[in-house]
Amino acid sequence: MTQDLRLSPGDTVGILGGGQLGRMLAIAAASLGLRTHIFCPDKQSPAFDVSAAQTVAAYEDKGALTEFAAACAAVTYEFENVPGETAAHLATLCPVRPGVRALEVSQDRLAEKDFLTASGVALAAYARIDTDDDLTVALQRFGGRGVLKTRRFGYDGKGQVMIRAAGDADGALDKLKHAPAVLEQLIGFEREVSVIVARDIDGKCDAYDVSENHHENHILKTSTVPAKLDPDTAAAARDMAIQIAASLDYVGVMGVEMFLCAGPDGEELLVNEIAPRVHNSGHWTEDACLTSQFEQHMRAVAGWSLGSCARHSDVVMENLIGDESDIWPDVLSDPNARLHLYGKRESRPGRKMGHVNRIRTRRT
Amino acid sequence: MTQDLRLSPGDTVGILGGGQLGRMLAIAAASLGLRTHIFCPDKQSPAFDVSAAQTVAAYEDKGALTEFAAACAAVTYEFENVPGETAAHLATLCPVRPGVRALEVSQDRLAEKDFLTASGVALAAYARIDTDDDLTVALQRFGGRGVLKTRRFGYDGKGQVMIRAAGDADGALDKLKHAPAVLEQLIGFEREVSVIVARDIDGKCDAYDVSENHHENHILKTSTVPAKLDPDTAAAARDMAIQIAASLDYVGVMGVEMFLCAGPDGEELLVNEIAPRVHNSGHWTEDACLTSQFEQHMRAVAGWSLGSCARHSDVVMENLIGDESDIWPDVLSDPNARLHLYGKRESRPGRKMGHVNRIRTRRT
Asked: Fewer Cβ atoms within 10 A, N terminus or C terminus of chain B?
């Protein structure tokens, strides 16, 4: 399969996953004259509303995947837990962007940390944990404190056990049902920031400004841009994201989460994790940049040149979670707020229903 | 039918017409969490790509219209030549916004000019022409010069005969197949400008900045904002558009085309025509304003409050007509240009394939 294929306007990009990210990708594609085809097992998926071409099938359904690939000039995905076999099968039929390697690395916290270490970026100390003995040894190394996380399928604080005191480690692996895990050293991080980086098929790379992220109940609540950072630290954060994208020979948009710590020589950045897709902490780009992360991703996936990542406004992105989306009339009546709703049929606690971009100072 | 109905996120707005305007309306609706349902007789319509709910049927198919209305909380349209019976039938079933009156007025040049006169805005002198005698009398009144136009279904210069000299009037009505017509006095207009105005169901009204429009072969080629105008003239243009929308008790976005003439007391504005829909000369709002004309229209149709019409950038919108859309890679590589393609399957001379918004100075 030609990995350097460039699409033409009117071609179809397949999207694995039908959530809000797929929906926003499909909308961005449409503005560029690209068609989309959504593949998702759940027929009530938000992305289905905005794309005429759709497949409702399991990700493991090879027949459906083969038909899907035949209808698409290239395939991308909105979530990193695409089964390895699904991606591998599709990759024999059409370009899959970002590539299979990005999925392999990001699906396994241990592989991800090993990859990040090899890429030369800084991250918190970590240890592979398969047994209680592994945990005991690692905790000794990390001063008795750490976060135990499953290697796979953790998100929004799920699949994690915090270990701060001696007793916390007892039964910790039981809580994770003895899934393969990693222990991360607890660091006294001050704030969480992230960088959205984009890389095209020619290796050209650009990064958006750093955002500062606040979580509530382990779910992203706000992203503020610009982040309060030394300019040198901000530049270093963007450089680290670009370095990671280059190491993966990445095509598309990637989110890179980092911890900002007080180090002996000032601010220090440790990479937390990467997401090989458009990222919730990049939703602010839709209204504060000329090119959104969604358009940027579709341009890269199409083999086209990237747009400018320049930011024209200061902005705070606020997720609308569960019933919080009931404030939509207030958002509409604020001339500096931009409403984005995902069209989900049912509101549930913890469910991301939409977001607001609140534009602050506009910059020239 | 409740004319003051306010929709909720997740509700469906029906759109009559599946061209690029319907497509851009559907995209804007999706960002607000609204669903759309496209009704169009041509199954190859650009808007079908971006909306899962679609009806391919004739506008005269009452059964199909009834089913369509049942699936929609409100209905709008992307073109003014919706058959009167179609709109009237739908209006018995659900709110149609803008209303039937806006269609009646804008479908008939004579009714439109009579309405504009009654609204108190200035326009060029005109006369109803049904016979050769009508034409002779009117030409005497207008100094022997004028533009003869069919009352219905003229667009992009079609259905028009220019009369500048005595012989031009001979057979003029034959050329229009003796369709009911109007003669417009030829005015020495300097430039064509337009205003995009928006009005919500509570009667709140706002207008975008005036754009200056240039045509090639009777098709809009560029819209430049700001237009070169005296500030007083610009304010007057916006006020006239607001006055027209109020007179129609209009709900939605409307385009108002005007001629800018050198009058005895300085610049003078004469209204040319109105379009009860989003308008090609408002495409610049997508990238130079916080709220695009497409979002503004869908907000009004949903019974929601309008967004800000404030403009943050100077901009030139350029239509990509026929093969001109082949320049898309150059547009993508210009960091200040924003590409919009309509996904049309076939390029034909004179066909609008997309547009570019070229951002000039950014304003705070």
From this structure: C
